Amino acid sequence: MRGIFTPITKIRRQVFTEVARYAYERDLTQSDFNYFYESSYRIIPGEVAQYRDSVFKERAIIRERLRLAMGLPMRPTDTHLSLTQGMAESATPNKHLDKPLVNVIPFACEACPTDTIKVSDNCRKCLAHPCTAVCPVKAVSIGKHAAVIDQDTCIKCGRCVQACPYHAIERFGRPCAEACGADAIFSDALGRAEIDQDKCVACGLCIVSCPFAAIADKSEIFQLITAIRTGRTVYAIIAPSFVGQFGPLATPGKIISGLKMLGMARVVEVGWGADFGSMHEADEFLAQRKLS
Amino acid sequence: MDKIIVEVCAGTHCTMMGAMNIMDAVASLSEIRKDMEPCCEVEVRPIKCMDLCKNGSQGPFVTVNGALVERAESDAVMAAIMQHCSGHRKAGE
Fold first, then answer.
1. CATH of range B2-92; options 3.30.360.10, 3.80.10.10, 3.40.50.300, 3.40.30.10
2. ipTM score of the complex?
3. Nearest to B20 among A10, A17, A247 (CB)
């Protein structure tokens, strides 16, 4: 869903807005974070669910997203912990992100089926039914109305998908697991996605792939704003991809000016550091060549 | 040919809530509509902040021939465009 504005983008931005607003408006001498108790009601107003089956669940998910946006870990689902637990301690510019950076919010996860091969409505129960002939484990049979795949026997080889003349057999999986290049997503006891943090490289692909907004990352937006507000010198080191980040109307000059208006002392493209690295490497290489 | 003017607020609040994406989506959908109903031409343009977010209303704000769409999404804007399209109205009669 990258590049398409969906309710997920909206929710994500609303959460960041809440965190940023409080970071700017709060009294720096006070460490009261009660503001965040109201946040989930501002983001999910009213009594009718907009996104999921209930407003209570929607707000509960927003609350975990708020914690992650504050750079804090999620709370356990089975024990009581205050929403604001840890916020006072993490409200300083000295706080840095702790792993895990990428988190599945368990109760937001729809426990999508893992790699599955399924017969769709397109099956015409044709005379040739090559799907049965190509199956190496005899998992495909012809049922009353359509071909049937015995999920327990199926080894997901995909031969029947290729053989069907009507494209009636589809293979699908979990968008998060399909996007993950590190093979870090497995299932918990309830069939929900869970991240193997030893394998995860925090690339964020699962976050943008999950259609249920069940995966979120931590941010340091609050700590950054606090650093600026308390007079620290803050440099923005931005990835070269910033050029395409805000659409065609935002020129690089505008983005850099905007960052400076936010309070950055200087804005440097991260590639600049790489240039220095390359120059240094080249000098070293030449010096070694001369020696030998 | 009728001209339908779609103005999209490009203020900070609206931009953050997806105004630019609405502009892109409406412009690209209007291309397809032009072949279906050549009676109308849709012009999408960004405008400076309409100041509507200051009174507590939620953006993005979009006007279609002057009619305001609050909390706009691209499908709501397209629906408003189709209402303003004379050819589409006739076809629906």
1. 3.40.30.10
2. 0.72
3. A247
